[in-house]
Amino acid sequence: MDISRRDLFLKSAGMAACIGGGAFASDLTKAETVEEEGAKTFFKLYPVGRVEKKGKSVWLRIFDRYADALKGLDGFSHVWVLYWLDKNDTPRKRSLFQVHPRGNKKNPLTGVFACRAPVRPNLIALSLCKILSVKGGVVHIEKIDAFDSSPVLDLKPYAPGIDSPTKGVRLPDWLKR
Amino acid sequence: MDISRRDLFLKSAGMAACIGGGAFASDLTKAETVEEEGAKTFFKLYPVGRVEKKGKSVWLRIFDRYADALKGLDGFSHVWVLYWLDKNDTPRKRSLFQVHPRGNKKNPLTGVFACRAPVRPNLIALSLCKILSVKGGVVHIEKIDAFDSSPVLDLKPYAPGIDSPTKGVRLPDWLKR
Questions:
Q1: What number is the ipTM of this complex?
Q2: Is A82's CB within 8 Å of B124's CB?
Q3: CA distances from B75 to A167, B131, B157 (A)
């Protein structure tokens, strides 16, 4: 962990005052060590394509080098599109952990892991989309709630056996309204 | 794009032989420029917690600094867990674009965007899990097809209105078997 990240971590954990320089690691409990590890670890995500919108038409244009990964997608009716909320990729927006869902203050303050807000620590958006066609590197879809040119991260086919609950879906009141 | 990445890109695009040093960008079409941009761009993903397994019990242990993001998740029955397939985070496994689903050679060679293979350009896994309880930073779930200590990237509540197709689910034969 470099010094600035470590300071940030210590400050956010409220521990800056109680830990001296040399004794850092040994003063941490195991859980804190894992958390410290989380602060310095990151994984690299590469865009595999872009969302393209024109009027009411929407395509996922997959970059040439990834086009082979689409083989067989035309056998499915629906696809999960994982894309990056690139307009919100700022330290501030990645640190907003609670919001009023749908920007409506009548909805209770809710954690971003309990709603689909476009601000979250990792800016991955998940949308289920109806496939109209797959031709070459281009997937024509019915619609998507994404900005034009949003970076596409991954596509996964919709499979009811694993993607739908077998029983008892329960929802909070704000989502039923 | 640094030289090594550029060379890799040129080689993978089969263009290494036809483009000279100075005239690089101007020789590319617009689509290729976007693709080149994709090759150097990456986004940073930070683990927000870990999968913990003990016997038949499974928890998502969210790091302290992200625990506020869980507020309200207990109002839901099911959660999408996005986690990182960290054991497969190698250049080779991130470059396998077609597989026989479920490792069964009787299944047709299929693009990784058309199945849920644990090798893909971006190693994000997506699992729908039943929530048993949410206490502090710990989400007790029924089960998950992930290794112990897999890095958790994001949680999203299951919302039938956006997460289930309204009509006509279609699947390829290999998935019906």
A1: 0.80
A2: yes
A3: 16, 10, 9
